Amino acid sequence: MAKEPEYIIVNIDTPRKYNWSTGKYLGHVYAEAKENKKLVGNKCPKCKAIMWGPTIVCPKCKVETGWEWEELPETGTVTQYTYLVFPLWDPHYGERWANPHPSGTILLENGVYQRHFLEETDPEKLKVGMRVQAVWKEDYDERGLGMQDVPYYRTIEE
Amino acid sequence: MAERVGIVAVAQTKYHPNRCDVNEEELSWEAIKPVLEETGLSLWDIESAVTCSQDFWEGRTISNMNIQHVVGAHLQHEDKVCEDGLNAVYVAMAQILSGHYDVVLVESHMKESQGEKSAIENAAFDPAMLRVLGLDYTSSAAMQAKRYMYKYGITAEQLAKVAVRNHANAKNNPFAQDAKGITLEDVLGSKMVSSPIRALDTKPISDGACAMILANEKTAKKLSKNPIWIMGVSNCYETHYLGDRELADCDALAKAAQKAYKMAGIKNALREIDVAEITTEYSYQEALWLEGLGLCAKGEGGRMVESKAVSMGGKLPLNPSGGVLPGVPNGVAGASRVAEAVLQLRGEAGERQVKGAKTALAHGYTGICGQHQAVMVLGNS
Known about the structure:
The complex is a heterodimer. By secondary structure, chain A is mainly β.
């Protein structure tokens, strides 16, 4: 019987630190979340859509936006979701988050599509059309990571 | 070239050691907005965008994804070049010559302040033979500098004069990062980084962006009173492993230059080129690249960089902007050389203007010891 070939694999496990500047517009999201427990988006002067994430140019209208801000509604409706069954990477610290992680797209009342985790972990209870509400980190000192200051959206009965 | 491609607008940010006030899209927009305003175009008029950025420096995979909207690429053509910015200009030119597009935006940006320079550069080396030695661009450049100095008897003093002249020129450049001015003693007394390269023989960490708009001849004449024409361009790669090439020579640059000159109809580069902006991240490179560019004979670069010929008012003013040594990000360097060449040829270079410049050379390179070289010749008639 032929011998199995041996493949040599070198493990390259070097972390490379990176400091990312949020910039002016996304920085405002971090500041408002930390200070006022608000998620805010800036408005396109042409189509009036709320930029989420906030940005200096409206991708669809191709015009400069500006500094007119609107708070995102706390509640919305799930339009699509997935039930992540594999562990996720923490994007900042490189650790693995335990599974499962239901995540979805939530249509907020002002027409913004928010993408976020859902608190509900029972796959049978996850539904398109379910109503959800933002859950905030209440402790000021725990906030400061922008959208992660809302860890997930919770199912609500209306 | 059968058809000509014109550069109708250029803009640069002021280069800065740490633009922590903006993210990549905002930094890019600082350069893009002025070229739109100058031409009267909107992002809707941009038929294609060629961007230049590098994933490791950007801290994300596919580094162009976060700037698609500021280059007008929503439901529109976009390509990324992750080498030097001059290659983005080259690709934009080729897109226009292909007949696909009339107007193309070029955008190049980099924030070196956000990453770990040495670690990022080390990742450019092959994992088995060179990365394990801990090499980065500076330590490998130091070997090239040593070899070059040894082979041709180039002195540290000669090379220090490169830094002094470029920093002095930078005083006339409003986009320059560091325009304090330095002396020969400052350079020779600065901290040794990797022998023979001292701190002032190299450039500081820098953030910045550069943008320009290219158009076919007919459109360029409508968009600008004085479009600047790309007369010739080429790039050339050579082997990765240090030791497989004679580092004291630069064959890839020589080949790229000769091809660009031929395309531009240049027979005697030193006589026909009025001003040159070349990418020099280390002082020895200016001398060595002059040889590769055919602007002096092999081994003569040391003498040329200390001659009056390359000073303002000389036969071939070199880097009137101060070039890259006072601080321009690695990935933006070549694009900013093109932008500076355009300003010279339009007579809009202010205090750093070379009088009557008609033909300019712009140069950029990517990678270890100038592994990939790009040369562009531009003209205003």
